[in-house]
Amino acid sequence: MNIHLFQLGLLGTNCYLLQKDGEALVIDPGGDPQTVLQKMQENNLKLQAILLTHAHFDHIGGVETLREKTEAPVYLHEKESSWLTDPSLNGSEFFQVGTISTSQSADYSIKPGHHKIGSFTFEVFHTPGHSPGSVSFWFEEKDVLFAGDTLFRQGIGRTDLPFGDHETLIQSIQEHILSLPEETTVYPGHGPATQVGEEKRTNSFLI
């Protein structure tokens, strides 16, 4: 499995394009969908799904165009099922960055547990705290975790936004992320990648 990183949208949100056996998954297309579409075209990839770690505005700006162009379904946790279409919930209204929304809700509710989509197999963890429907995607075969805005290198997701909760976030990190093998690479929603072991030892928010 190959991983392509793009920094997209108003806040340069990390968007990940996963490539395997001529198929692709996209995680958190925050904007600039043509960038992702061009990469898929260059590699002759068929998009199987659009996975969202959560539905804050800076993670969803490219969703609708990708869905329309590829007919790939969108997956999102049920606790944020109405956020895609509601700027007052996804934060775009709160941050006054203009109306960012989709014309329709997610196609599927993503639930914790084992999933197989096309050539990809992965585990979904419900990791609330930054937002109530935040999830993380663990690809055990590659030993990588896509954590959204739950955990960053030397940091954690902010919890001062509506529906955020600090204690819940710390519990999510401890139960579902720090319990993974220390060599697991964590790909966050913003900033550089890190490893579980490094964050255990040096992240001041977790020590």
List the helices and strands and how they pair.
Blueprint: E1 2-8, E2 13-20, E3 23-27, H1 33-42, E4 46-51, H2 63-70, E5 74-76, H3 87-90, E6 108-109, E7 113-117, E8 120-126, E9 135-139, E10 144-148, E11 151-152, E12 155-156, H4 166-177, E13 185-188, E14 194-195, H5 196-202
Parallel strand pairs: 3-4, 4-5, 5-6, 10-13
Antiparallel strand pairs: 1-2, 2-3, 7-8, 8-9, 9-10, 11-12, 13-14
Helix pairs in contact: 1-2
Describe this structure in words.
Its cofactor is Zn(2+). With 207 residues, this protein is α/β, with parallel strands linked by helices. It has a single domain (2-79, 109-202), classed as Ribonuclease Z/Hydroxyacylglutathione hydrolase-like (Metallo-beta-lactamase, Chain A). The protein contains five helices and 14 strands. The strands form three sheets. It has a six-stranded mixed beta sheet with strand order 1-2-3-4-5-6, with helices on one face. A six-stranded mixed beta sheet has the order 7-8-9-10-13-14. The chain has a two-stranded antiparallel sheet with strand order 11-12. Strand 3 (23-27), helix 1 (33-42) and strand 4 form a beta-alpha-beta unit. The model has no long low-confidence stretch (mean pLDDT 95).
